Amino acid sequence: MLDLYLFQLLNGLGLGMIYFLIAVGLTIIFGLLNFVNFAHGAFFLLGAYLCYTAVAITGNFWLALLIAPLAVAALAWAVERLLIKRIYHLPHTFQILVTLGIALIIQEASVLIWGPVGKNIAVPPELRGVLILGDFIYPYYRLFLIGFAALIGLGLWLLLERTRFGALVRAGSESTETVSLLGTNIFRLFSLTFALGVGLAGVAGVLFAPLRGAQPFVGPEILGIAFVVVVIGGMGSFGGALVGGLLVGVVQSMMSSLWPQGASLMIYGAMAAVILVRPYGLFGRA
Amino acid sequence: MLNVESIHSYYDKSHVLEGVSLQVGDGELVTLLGRNGAGKTTTLRSILGIVRPRQGQISFDGQQLVGREIFDIARQGIALVPEHRGIFRQLSVEENLKIAVRKGSRWQLDDVYSMFPRLKERRRNGGFALSGGEQQMLAIARALLNGPKLLILDEPTEGLAPVIVDELVKILRRIKGEGLSILLVEQNLMVCDALADRHYVLEQGRVAYQGSAAQFRDDPSIKNRYLALSA
Ligand SMILES: Nc1ncnc2c1ncn2[C@@H]1O[C@H](COP(=O)(O)OP(=O)(O)O)[C@@H](O)[C@H]1O
Ligand SMILES: [Mg+2]
């Protein structure tokens, strides 16, 4: 019985790290650009499908893990330059409307390209099988998932906290005008940050694919969860996305063995509880 | 080097600058004076492209500036130390400086650290932890790293203790001594008299007076007419 809980706890951590990757991208974009990206879940979906295609063509999951997120980021960069940069100055409601439109286009295009039924993506051969420790059994892929997502998170943290680019992103989240006054091309910074944030959703989509496959209608659900995580953790906070993501992942996973129907209820309940106690989220600033 | 020719700037429908003209020559320190609300900050914001003048021309080293992006104007060699200093609170002192470093600049990190030893001591502190004087020093140091040919300061002594003001005057004199052109908005007339070559006085969005430092010093009626008597 205890093993089952440990199993679900680990599952929850893996799921939580995926949620973290999605939410941290959303929150960085919001922090710098003050932009609400409702297409974030659709880019996640695209990551999963591009992984499927890349695996189908190359037969190599590792290559897919590299190519698919880059392709998602490149597309995001193009969409930013063509469309999104024109709507930063509009109220959030307009931004939601436009990005919701982008999400629908991506979703329907995915159905056209890959069909209405989901696609399965095999676990890479190196990670098939399970870890056996006495009575405890755990799939290698899920362990890899936790470790890899943690590595990406660490790399992202170093990027944001230790590089000039990261300092500019943090500075820009305080005042884009002052950053411009220092001669930084703020539009380029915006494009790169948008592509980075969306690329993280792409990474999450790829990592998720061998677990649940690529499903055409998963976007809105993922987007919903990402927003719950961001609200729990606090808008614009890296640490908040991590803690919020893990919290939601673990709660969801534990509930699935305790009371499956109540899983989403618990998540939204947790969000409501956090907002009541700390309106700006666990790590948020007013 | 800087030539502002009868610019008109607005906030929505409110007409704030009604044909402001001014010049700053090479190596000159020029002040822009005037009561609160006269349009001094708006003039600076117009030069840097934060507010776009609807009429008039601004040229700098032969380049037209009106209509360009803020970062592009800054790259031509104009640095603004803004009214509220614009220190990034979440960044450390050193990060605040490093994001401004430009290769060709006469001032590099070591130079500003030797000019402002206090900043070096506090380089690992967060921007939020600085006193008003330290913030002002940081804002000036950061502007210098950006490699300006023209340094623009918006009320740098505002809210600072007299000792710090004296220190600031020394620093500005030193920067001027290195040949940098400076446009200074300032309410403290002692500071202006100590530093300036020429003065402009703005009133309700127009230049009401301009004159050399000597003319300005010898004519108290100007101060009474156009400026608050607080100095
Ligand atoms: N962001 C703004 N929106 C609308 N009006 C403004 C804004 N900033 C300044 N003003 C108005 O423009 C006029 C000039 O302001 P400003 O340039 O800040 O004056 P100064 O710097 O000389 O005190 C004032 O009447 C002020 O109320
Ligand atoms: Mg002002």
UniProtKB/TrEMBL annotation, chain A:
InterPro entries: ABC_transp_permease (IPR001851), BCAA_transport_permease (IPR052157). It comes from the Bacteria. The keyword Ribonucleoprotein does not apply. It is found in: Cell inner membrane. Keywords: Amino-acid transport, Cell membrane, Membrane, Transmembrane, Transmembrane helix, Transport. Pfam families: BPD_transp_2 (PF02653). It is a multi-pass membrane protein. Its main location: membrane. The keyword Transmembrane helix applies. The chain crosses the membrane at residues 12-33, 38-55, 61-84, 96-117, 137-160, 189-210, 222-251, 263-283. Belongs to the binding-protein-dependent transport system permease family. LivHM subfamily. This is Branched-chain amino acid ABC transporter permease. It comes from Pseudomonas capeferrum.
From TrEMBL, chain B:
Belongs to the ABC transporter superfamily. Residues 2-229 form the ABC transporter domain. SMART domains: AAA. CDD domains: ABC_TM1139_LivF_branched. The keyword Kinase does not apply. This is ABC transporter ATP-binding protein. Pfam families: ABC_tran. Keywords: Amino-acid transport, ATP-binding, Nucleotide-binding, Transport. The keyword Membrane does not apply. It comes from the Bacteria. GO terms for molecular function: ATP binding. InterPro entries: AAA+_ATPase, ABC_transporter-like_ATP-bd, ABC_transporter-like_CS, BCAA_Transport_ATP-bd_LivF, P-loop_NTPase.
